[in-house]
Write a structure and sequence with these properties.
- The chain is mainly alpha-helical and about 325 residues long.
- About 70% of the residues lie in helices and about 0% in strands.
- Helix 2 packs across helix 3 and helix 2 packs across helix 17.
């Protein structure tokens, strides 16, 4: 592992987020989430990149304090706070909702509310009332409880509408903006953050969406998601399916997902699962805008831009960071 990556990991575990205050068995993938976020910042800022690549640990410490300290995250990127506490959200919802089922649907609605309207208020109130980071969890869990109760009430009155979302004339950007690059960096980062909310399922969701939208899939990404994929299965996942139906695609890859810890009863349930995840992500992307700007057509166009522009840049940055 490169020396600078080791330094960042050590500083996270010993200084910014020590194990006694942020136990890793409760804060799922905390180091991975923060390092991924940090690399995203570096990719957009040449000065940050120079500091990271240098051997000056004092400057790197200052940069880590400025970008990854809990106070700075609350101040600069409250949405990341939701991702950091996703494990707590999951455990709370599943424990509270186990008698009634629909745990995952309720969890996604709670996360949606937190991202849309709650987390900024939570962080603002916390900054006014508290000074120590470790108290935030109690404050957050109380807010989570209220959000969960509010979600249960709203489900009885207004179930999530999965009809096709219509574009408005007053939307912030249009289909053509995906070619011109307008506002894309911000949208890309939001999408990457939303994917992290699905934790261990995020890779399978990505591959499923890429198959559905006939996007080119990178072999190394498949190997990371499906650790024991064989040569025949790899060929199936990487195949060119532009001329066949979704149903035929899902039939070809269904067994690969099943063999890698993903329970699929039949092709139709697999199709419904992919469509449901796509609609959830569209819903989450739309909460950042005054009007819903994403429907299935726009989301498909967005995915093309994301995997053509954002992912290669991130991969290129990570490769450079790994060089001695």
């Amino acid at each position: 592992m490169p020396e600078n990556v080791k330094f960042v990991q050590t500083y996270l575990k010993t200084v910014l987020y020590p194990e006694d205050k942020y136990p890793r068995e409760k804060y799922n993938c905390l180091d991975k989430i923060l390092i991924s976020y940090f690399l995203g910042l570096i990719n957009k800022n040449d000065n940050y990149k120079k500091i990271y690549q240098s051997s000056n640990h004092n400057e790197l410490k200052e940069l880590l304090e400025q970008t990854l300290s809990f106070r700075k995250i609350i101040q600069n990127d409250p949405y990341l706070v939701v991702v950091m506490h996703e494990g707590f959200i999951t455990r709370y919802i599943y424990k509270s909702q186990w008698r009634y089922g629909n745990q995952e649907d309720v969890k996604q609605e709670v996360i949606l509310k937190l991202l849309h309207s709650k987390i900024h208020r939570i962080c603002k109130q916390f900054k006014k009332k508290y000074k120590k980071n470790e108290k935030f969890l109690s404050f957050f869990m109380l807010s989570l409880r209220y959000t969960y109760i509010e979600t249960l009430r709203s489900r009885n009155m207004n179930l999530l509408n999965h009809k096709e979302l219509e574009l408005q004339e007053t939307d912030a950007f249009t289909l053509n903006d995906f070619e011109s690059g307008i506002l894309l960096d911000e949208e890309f980062n939001r999408y990457a953050t939303i994917l992290k909310l699905y934790h261990k399922s995020s890779g399978k969701i990505e591959i499923s969406l890429m198959l559905k939208h006939r996007l080119k899939i990178d072999r190394s990404f498949v190997e990371r998601v499906f650790s024991n994929v064989n040569a025949r299965e790899m060929k199936l996942i990487l195949g060119d399916y532009r001329l066949i139906s979704d149903q035929q695609v899902y039939k070809k890859v269904k067994k690969i997902f099943s063999r890698n810890g993903f329970t699929i009863n039949d092709i139709d349930s697999f199709r419904k699962w992919i469509n449901r995840k796509e609609l959830q992500i569209i819903e989450k992307l739309n909460v950042f805008h005054d009007h819903p700007i994403y429907n299935k057509l726009v989301f498909s166009k967005f995915l093309v831009a994301y995997y053509d522009q954002y992912v290669p840049n991130i991969n290129q940055t990570q490769t450079k960071m790994k060089k001695p």
